[in-house]
Amino acid sequence: MKKISVLLAMVLVCSFRSLPANAQDIDVSTKYQEPIGQHIQFYQNKETHLSMQSAYDAFQNGDFSQSSDSVLNFGIGAKPVWLAFRVRNHAHDYVLRNLLFEASWLDKIDVYYLHKNKLVNSYHIGDRQLFSQRPINHRFFVTEHDFRTGNTTVLIRIESDDAMVLPIYFLTAKETADRNMLQAYSYGLIYGIILALVAYNFMLYIGLRSGPYFFYSLYLLLFLLLNAAYTGHGYQWLWPDSPLWQQWSNPVLIMLCTLSGCAFALNFLDIKTASPRIHQSVIVCCLSFCVLTLIAILTDKFIITLFISLLFIFYFFSLAVILGIISLRKKNRFAQYFLLASIFTICGGIVTANTVWGFIPFNWLTYRATEIGMVADAILLALALAERFNINQSEKLAAEKRADIDLLTNLNNRRAFYKFVQPLWSISLRSKSYTSVIILDIDDFKLLNDNYGHPIGDLVLVQLAETIQKEARSGDILARWGGEEFLIFLPETQLTDAIAIADRMRKRIMTIQISIDNGEKISFTASFGVATTQDINVSLNELIAQADQQLYHAKKKGRNRVYPDLSN
């Protein structure tokens, strides 16, 4: 439930750092595929009804603070915020651009366009209005403006009792349509899968009259409605004339979806038989949450209702794991599926929450990880009776993993290296970032084998592999390239940094000592070749070949060294 994860993240987000107002202007001739938050300055004042002119004066006086994040985030129940940025148009003609606010729950958005200190256009939108009043038929909020030659200042006032997380995009009309179409395909797939599972489980309930099938189909249906409410599809398709329900739909549907999830868990895991007292306690807790929610709704306390629903979610996540463990101990063979499905949902929520916090890059995959986790949850639970299929899949995955590992050193082999590196290499080509490769070779390894035997040679390889693993960074990809050669892929790393890493590994390898039967201790060294590229015309294999050539020079220069050697 993406909405749930975002709201959970909002509870923990308290404040933003203020930075000097030095945002780079937006140029209409440049494409902005990512949110433009880092171009935006923001301003929150005790005066919640600050006029547009007063906000503009504050912006001109440098009172606004610079955002450091691509997606701005002010938390739940935040005060109204003013945003501002400048747009440059060096062309002689007007240029039409859209502002896309990818947050469907914002109560009120006022957008002002000022050219030469004069207001030339404005929009007043938000989900407190009827959907038909939106200037553009879109599930999110979209405004369009013809930018004149010169500089235009865009002022935006946003007000919302809900989570104020603001992915704002600056796009052409075609880019807006293409983005919406791409998302429509993905949502169509997700909604199609879930609706198919709803129908499948409800048909099973009709045929078998078994409670778990009914509660599971209800749970999936309510999740679908909740997701539609969060994504804006609900307001666009199902209740376009009900702004009041649009405001309250999220906390109400969160409660109903969580309540049906609890009912499904109790029935699916047969908790009433496994532990009657826990079964009764869960029912009492669920009823208590429902009563508290009803009181908050009747007293028109939206924020309180929202926090009660969030607390209910925390309770449900914890309960799912506890009930799964209880049922597993009672030898319920389906409990493992329930636990695994719950982990998928929770992990998806963690990814989305960390995306909102800014710890993970914001993109459609990380932001919608909860949806992906929920689809996995739905599929796993729908296939709970197909235990043999799941076992076969697990065995297949285990065999594939074994095929990717060098059995002696436990590092990736060549096959796994290319599998893991190829996506990173593609990203580096698109971003034109520096990418480095280190190749290392044990000096006089054949002599070690001849003098001490192959078991000692194998021990040398194992010790070296463990050492370079410890010295490598978390994002680096290591592989045994063959024999005594090892390869390290370093994304987003310049030559000087790669050389420093290689030299640190070289010095650490020199400290390794291996004891043999007669008490003698042997040590060994390694030579390193390093290559770096930013050229999109250089292939991965060519970069590896360059590193191999540098390794040849290191050997030729006397071994136990890193080449190129920038100190010379």
Automatic annotation (TrEMBL):
GO biological process: cell adhesion involved in single-species biofilm formation; negative regulation of bacterial-type flagellum-dependent cell motility
UniProt domain GGDEF: residue ranges: 433-567
EC class (word): transferase
Alphabetical list of PROSITE patterns matching this protein: GGDEF
GO CC, alphabetical: plasma membrane
UniProt keyword Signal, yes or no: yes
EC number, UniProt record: 2.7.7.65
Catalytic activity: 2 GTP = 3',3'-c-di-GMP + 2 diphosphate
Transmembrane segments: 184-206, 213-232, 252-269, 281-298, 304-326, 338-360, 366-386
Molecular function in Gene Ontology: diguanylate cyclase activity
Residues annotated as signal peptide: 1-23
Family annotation (InterPro entries): 7TMR_DISM_rcpt_extracell_dom1 (IPR011623), 7TMR_DISM_rcpt_extracell_dom2 (IPR011622), Diguanylate_Cyclase (IPR050469), GGDEF_dom (IPR000160), Nucleotide_cyclase (IPR029787), Rev_trsase/Diguanyl_cyclase (IPR043128)
Keywords from the named record: Membrane, Signal, Transmembrane, Transmembrane helix
Protein name (Swiss-Prot/TrEMBL): diguanylate cyclase
Native organism: Nitrosomonas ureae
